[in-house]
């Protein structure tokens, strides 16, 4: 039982940490991008016609910082209810609480879902469209990871729409739910976006 609990705790902690850190990613990447651009331009390296890019491509990159920050903050806000739900469930399951405290956490989780889940449903498809706009306004020749991240994000959103509107048979919906709520898929998405943006020139 203890081994099973440990397996559940790790994805929960990773999800909460990544959700909390997600809004800071564009700011850090932008600062790093500006600093490296000045350094390499001054010394005749990357940033102009210098050394080719890295990872999966090559060339000069130009990201649209405004839309990138909007996407990051919106993504964190839209999925806040999921993070809260996982946190409350984790505390309820693993903390040594009495029956009254557990009942209070269940009611709190139900209440926050009632008021916040609607934003999760509405905002995520809109954020996907905004992410596509961000991609179209940016130029990334150094790596294809942001594009793969966008595709993965699109797949997660489509699965959520299928789940919400029940666009497939009931038996298949169970598998859609498992895939849509899979923490590993979310970790892969965040990893591709973070590594991809850090790999940009």
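^ Assign residues to that structure.
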């Amino acid at each position: 039982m203890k081994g099973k609990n440990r397996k559940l705790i790790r994805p929960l902690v990773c999800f909460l940490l990544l959700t909390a850190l997600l809004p800071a990613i564009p700011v850090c990447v932008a600062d790093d991008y500006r600093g490296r651009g000045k350094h390499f331009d001054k010394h005749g390296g990357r940033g102009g016609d210098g050394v080719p890019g890295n990872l999966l491509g090559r060339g000069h990159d130009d990201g649209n910082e405004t839309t990138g920050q909007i996407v990051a903050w919106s993504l964190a806000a839209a999925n806040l209810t999921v993070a809260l739900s996982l946190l409350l469930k984790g505390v309820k399951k693993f903390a040594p609480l009495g029956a009254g405290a557990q009942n209070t956490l269940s009611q709190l989780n139900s209440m926050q879902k009632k008021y916040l889940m609607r934003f999760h449903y509405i905002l995520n498809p809109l954020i996907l469209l905004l992410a596509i706009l961000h991609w179209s306004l940016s130029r990334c020749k150094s790596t294809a990871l942001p594009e793969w991240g966008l595709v993965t994000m699109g797949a997660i959103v489509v699965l959520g729409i299928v789940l919400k509107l029940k666009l497939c048979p009931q038996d298949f919906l169970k598998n859609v739910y498992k895939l849509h709520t899979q923490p590993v898929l979310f970790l892969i998405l965040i990893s591709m976006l973070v590594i991809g943006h850090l790999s940009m020139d």
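Residues 21 and 157 are 21 Å apart (CA to CA).
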